[in-house]
Amino acid sequence: MATDVKVPQLGESITEATVGQWLKQPGDAVAQDEAIASLETDKVSVEVNSPVAGTLSEQLVKEGESVEVGAVIARIGEAGMAASPAPAAEPATGEGQSTVAGAPVNPVGAGENPALRSDHEADHADLTLSPAVRRAVLEHHVDPSKIQGTGKDGRLTKDDVLAAAQAKATPAAAQPAAPAKAEAAAQSKMPSTAQAASAPAPARAEGAVGERTEERVKMSRLRQTIATRLKEAQNTAALLTTFNDVDMSAVIDARARYKDLFEKKHGIRLGFMGFFVKAVALAARDVPSVNARIEGDEIVYSNFLDVSVAVSAPKGLVVPVVRSADAMSFAEIEQAIAAFGKKAKDGTLTADEMKGGTFTISNGGVFGSLLSTPIINPPQSAVLGMHRIEERPVVKDGQIVARPMMYLALSYDHRLVDGREAVTFLVRVKEAIEDPTRLLIDL
After folding, report:
1. In this predicted model, what pLDDT tens digit does every residue of 338-352 receive, in sequence order?
2. What is the pTM of this model?
3. 3-class secondary structure for 282-311?
4. Distance CA 229, CA 378 (A)
């Protein structure tokens, strides 16, 4: 008897998701609680696990289709049970070919014995390819079963296919140089200029030069949500950005002095974010409006600091929340951020971990950004942008010296935060970073 696989609860206020990718195909054996599909919601990617052990007998929806919470998307039969064709399957290819998610794989030539194909190829005969990867496979005529995937769980990415196609073309294009004597002999036998001019030009490989291609890919649900929320922030808030710069010498010295002891005691590296979270908590006490929000005709002030930390995920920027960050130690802050970063990379962040937040810190410096104007994360009223550290000439005690400087940017909702308050907040952060002792004695 088959068991239905339903869309699980996806978090508060989330009622719908999109089937991002099938991780198992009909006929595949699955273990209990093993992921069989990946769903994309407005905030995170969620894996759907099999409720029982058995065989995936049927897929009821295709990749890219929207499904509601509680909807049945697949059925699990007993082990060895015959599978129904997947709805996403494409028409069969010509005789003598097998298919990999719609892409021809391992064409059997005349007189070739299919039984002689390698075990590696047979093991990959049911690879699951995303639409973009499938198109690349068809376009470049490569065998996906012979490509080592670098994506999650070893899956193929478009870059893997392009790299394989380039490697396939390179041996044909690169011919070993002939020895000098052989080259001279060949030149002596070359036809005259007149003969060469009359000879027909070699045919140019079709599409080798001047090829212009486009790829149309549907926006993921997460990317659509990011776009909607950012545009909503621009349309609703009176956005303004104020800048300052900060000398990072003291923080860099503190890290260099204590990083080994810190890592030995807490099992985590001492980063910059802990200093900035602490500095923001200190500055928010003097300027509480940056940690507030507007609800209707009221201003809601928070007596706690829940920091949304922008981290990069494979499908876009996500902002998990470090809760009560003002009451946490440096080690607790760094551990929380490191855990979120790993989850974002693995795609295992939950909706609850990104819900709420009273203030956002975004560190574009890790990608090399010198300066930016970040956009607030509604309904928050402010976001602090960090940038890369670089040595610049500054005047200290009447002398021009080189110092590791960082630009800070505070974007804020001018309906709630005045310019004077924004400048005061940045100055407080600057003072705390340039003299970290203030963080210890609460100044």
Report:
1. 899 888 888 788 878
2. 0.59
3. HHHHHCHHHHEEEECCEEEECCCCCEEEEE
4. 7
If you average pLDDT over residues 420-427, what whole number do you get?
Answer: 96
Cβ-contact 320, 353 below 8 angstroms: yes
d(C-alpha 409, C-alpha 371), whole Å? 8
Pairing outcome for strands 399-413 and 239-247: antiparallel
Q: For domain 227-441, say whether CATH 3.30.559.10 is its number.
A: yes
CATH of domain 100-170: 4.10.320.10
**27-54 average pLDDT score:** 82
Instruction: State both tokens at 341.
Output: 């970063």
Give Cβ neighbours of residue 198 (< 8 Å, ≥ 6 apart). Answer: none
Contact status, residue 401 vs residue 218, Cβ threshold 8 Å: no
**Does 6 score more than 50 pLDDT?**
yes
Side chain identity at residue 348, one-letter code: T
Q: Which tokens sit at 120?
A: 């590696």
Fold of 1-89: OB fold (Dihydrolipoamide Acetyltransferase, E2P) (2.40.50)
Look at residue 242 in the predicted model and tell me its pLDDT. 96
Annotated catalytic residues are: 414, 418
Instruction: Please list, in sequence order, all residues whose beta carbon lies within 8 angstroms of the beta carbon of residue 272, skipping any fewer than 6 positions away.
Output: 248, 251, 255, 363, 386
> And the tokens for 233?
């922030």
Least confident range of 2-6, 94-98, 322-326: 94-98
